[in-house]
Amino acid sequence: MFKGKKLFLIFILSLNIVTSYNPDKMPTVFRTNKKEVALTLDDGPTYLYTENILDILKKYNVKASFFLIGNRMREHPEMVKRIYLEGHDIGNHTYNHLRLDRFEPNKIEEEIIETNKMYINILGFLPKYFRPPGGRFNNIVYNTIKENKLFSVGWSINTGDFLYINQEVNEEYIQRRVARIISLLEKTLKPGSIILMHNGSLISVQALPEVIKYIQSQGYTFVKLSEVEEFLL
Ligand SMILES: [Zn+2]
Hints:
- It is a single chain.
- The chain starts with a helix and ends with a strand.
- It has helices spanning 2-19, 50-59, 70-75, 77-85, 105-123, 139-147, 171-188, 202-217, and strands spanning 29-30, 36-44, 65-68, 89-92, 129-130, 151-152, 157-158, 194-198, 221-223, 231-232.
- It contains 8 helices and 10 strands.
- The strands form 2 sheets. Strands 2, 3, 4, 5, 6, 7, 8 and 9 form an 8-stranded parallel sheet that branches.
- 45% of the residues lie in helices and 15% in strands.
- It is α/β, with parallel strands linked by helices.
């Protein structure tokens, strides 16, 4: 029994060494005594979906927080401006959407700094928030974002609103995925939840109004990350 436990511990420790993955340093929820949640929208701006997403947020009067990819910001600076001007929060989601825990410190720094440069070029100021692609995090990432005065934010509810490659997409399939997202929210939504969605697919665009309507129907309001007083791990 004891030996089994010891082996298990060694296994866990070796996993930790291999991936250097330390999710403990990234907050995933926030403290609140009100029925509030934060909606985060990653991987924009995209040519096909970001405008639609902004239109939906405007229609339902919801403010969200966008984690933008540097090379997409370069392609669509006008969308970055629109996101900001419509009152949403914005954050750094690296330049090439790389899983940072696989890279050397200088590459990690480059991914973060190049995206910050995009913010300076397009909006004239630096973002405050950072989210590592795939949530992949290690001590080097942590130190680099700290040096660059960024604050990392994870999520507690991953809606899984993306499409896998080679997925057959028709209306029925999309509706099934949307229903699955709502059922996930029914089970997991609570005050202080941080919800992860994306700018990347038709599922996001079709799910977003349903997600907002469901959350509002439960008496919740949406806050931006900058309105949060205290994040929790
Ligand atoms: Zn992402």
